Amino acid sequence: MDALKEYWIFESALLVCFFVGIDLGGKMKENLFKASLGSKGDAPLKSYDIGKLLLVGFFGGLVSMGIIGTINGRWLKLDRKVLIGLGALALILLGLKLTLLAMMGMGMLGWDYRTYRMVSKIGYVGLFIAYYFAFKKPFSLFVYAGGIPTPLLKPGLLWIFIGGLIEFLMVYAVSVAVDYDIL
């Protein structure tokens, strides 16, 4: 009797799968993430690969990571408060970096340049982690909806150059101010 009961349960499950549209291979016959209600502007249209944002920050600095991250956040339709918070975090880390440089130049810290660069890189990784966790869910939905990440090479190189130039000018200004005892 138990074999007959298991057979009917199995047949019932097959019928449910057939009517719902589930393929026996575990794949859906219809795309469940395709919007059926609402406007077409609900789903994000494009996004950069969020894993490559670390490279932009590592080579270009906090400014380039903040700008590329904000652009990507707008594309992923992240909440405005989250974007403002991430931008504020990038500005705070940039201010901290410049403050540490000024303190190092005045002799208040016993650091050499190598230690300063290592602390800066830790700040880049921390900002990347914040961006990664903010973008993780919207980016996953973007990929599951069939989105293909936009290549980051050209805009990444452009913002690495621009962000690096901006940070260089800021660091140069702080260094000059320390040398001439303006700070």
Largest sheet: none
What structural category characterises the helix and strand content?
mainly alpha
The span between the termini is: 89 Å
What is the gyration radius calculated from CA atoms?
A: 25 Å
The shape, in one word, is elongated
- Domain module count: 2
Low-confidence stretches: 14-24
Number of strands: 0
Order of helices and strands: HHHHHH
Quick check: average pLDDT?
A: 80
Q: Which characteristics define this entry?
A:
elongated; single chain; 0% strand; 2 domains; 183 residues; mainly alpha
Structural commentary:
Helix 3 packs antiparallel against helix 6. The relative contact order is 0.16. The protein folds into 2 domains: 1-29; 45-179, no CATH class. It has helices at 2-20, 53-60, 62-75, 80-105, 113-144, 153-179. The protein contains 6 helices and no strands. With 183 residues, it is mostly helical. The chain starts with a helix and ends with a helix.
Give a brief description.
By secondary structure, the chain is mainly alpha-helical.
Strand and helix map with partners:
Layout: H1 2-20, H2 53-60, H3 62-75, H4 80-105, H5 113-144, H6 153-179
Helix pairs in contact: 2-3, 2-5, 2-6, 3-4, 3-5, 3-6, 4-5, 4-6
